[in-house]
């Protein structure tokens, strides 16, 4: 950075304030999960792992966590083939009505989440699917699909069409070209996209709240229901699971594509 | 024939069979349709949303019969009339619109220096640190973050306990309008920074050096160079932040404690408290309309490629 001292002071003041805002909840939840007391107090009453022991015993929280994992897995399994094919098609071919199709495929982002959630709640309810868990996986795949398509198109547009022509020239039929040339080339995009889909479905709160019934809640909904009554440290311990998942996802993302891609100008 | 068998491994045979099946199912003469076939699953999946919107539209035209608690059979526009005239709904809408406007301005004020530092810093370690600090909360999810704020700001929370240590009586920091706005600002910050950063990257650092070599101090080089050139990023980030805050549910629900409802909370209550499906659907549809118009503006300003999908081949 170039510039004077006063500039650095002003910028750093804002950045440090932002960093505190961004990180304070995470750090506090981490700290609270290790408390030895029965309440979350400040300063903490000493360190212990007893709340982790407590959540490993609590079947309600564990089941809610497995439900979230199940939903995230279904979401990812649907999104991978659907998003990959669509992403490759958009990047590789000049599609008629391409512009319209893109706007249509961005509907999950343009429709507010509460609208999508209510719509799918009514639709699934009329179709007799209410209360089941797998439609929630489908719903999560729908609302986050643009992320998957975006990730695949981004890596597919780096693929030179000459490579496939060369393969065809050597006698490779279409399916082989797809499996041995196109698919490996877009693999980083597929991995990035599926990671995003998985973590976003794991955390999905509003659509879960609308689509599941009270006996079948996912973990974010379970936490939401509990914090409205009383705040106990066991919720902090289970929240650390989310923090850990997020940290792993970021580490993998950074290894695979590098976080710096988000800074590139188009 | 033995040597040729060895030279033609089983995997190739499988591939040949698959190739033949693929050729039968999708002959070469159909090849123009191939991209559409590949797009079809995605089109169908997003179709679920369209189906949902149709259901919302249908429900919004039916009113609740308070004597039987059934939805009316015939269509009427009564719900829309109520939504636009009843005091309660206009209050909630006003609160949400005003709140989103404040949140947008405050978020942009914080996001601007953050993305400036992130883009301009020489140190790649600092850049990575700033990026991780952005992504971690983004991936943790709203509920856990709001839970963290409950611990910090609650009546027996960290801030009040710390104030108590120096003899200040506890202050009510939660369940009011500022708490919701604060929660929204910190929720929106990553979105705003990530939308601003590409616009910042596009501004050459030399422009600023040139300005300062011509005698501009940093404030005027910010005002006359960085700010105008990052305008597309600011507009995009502002619209996204505005739309997302306007339609948010979790933060007003958790940090507002039921007293500071935004539109999404009012919709939820119509469905799950009042059981007036028609009214809830009407409000949803109105919100979808407002949200789509706002996002439509983003597309008009930047083109549909903004969210970085598709065909910009080099």
Automatic annotation (TrEMBL), chain A:
It comes from the Bacteria. Pfam families: BPD_transp_1. Gene3D superfamilies: MetI-like (1.10.3720.10). Belongs to the binding-protein-dependent transport system permease family. GO terms for cellular component: plasma membrane. InterPro entries: MetI-like, MetI-like_sf. The keyword Cell inner membrane applies. This is ABC transporter permease. Keywords: Cell inner membrane, Cell membrane, Membrane, Transmembrane, Transmembrane helix, Transport. PANTHER family: INNER MEMBRANE ABC TRANSPORTER PERMEASE PROTEIN YDCV. It is a multi-pass membrane protein. The chain crosses the membrane at residues 9-34, 69-91, 103-124, 136-157, 178-202, 235-257. It comes from Oryzicola mucosus. It is found in: Cell inner membrane; Cell membrane. Residues 65-253 form the ABC transmembrane type-1 domain. One of its GO terms (biological process) is transmembrane transport. The keyword DNA damage does not apply.
UniProtKB/TrEMBL annotation, chain B:
Signal peptide: none annotated. It is a multi-pass membrane protein. It comes from Oryzicola mucosus. Belongs to the binding-protein-dependent transport system permease family. CysTW subfamily. Its main location: membrane. GO terms for biological process: transmembrane transport. Keywords: Cell membrane, Membrane, Transmembrane, Transmembrane helix, Transport. GO terms for cellular component: plasma membrane. The chain crosses the membrane at residues 34-54, 97-117, 129-154, 174-197, 233-255, 283-308. It holds the Pfam family BPD_transp_1. It comes from the Bacteria. This is ABC transporter permease. It is found in: Cell membrane. The keyword Transcription does not apply. The keyword Cell inner membrane does not apply. Residues 93-298 form the ABC transmembrane type-1 domain.
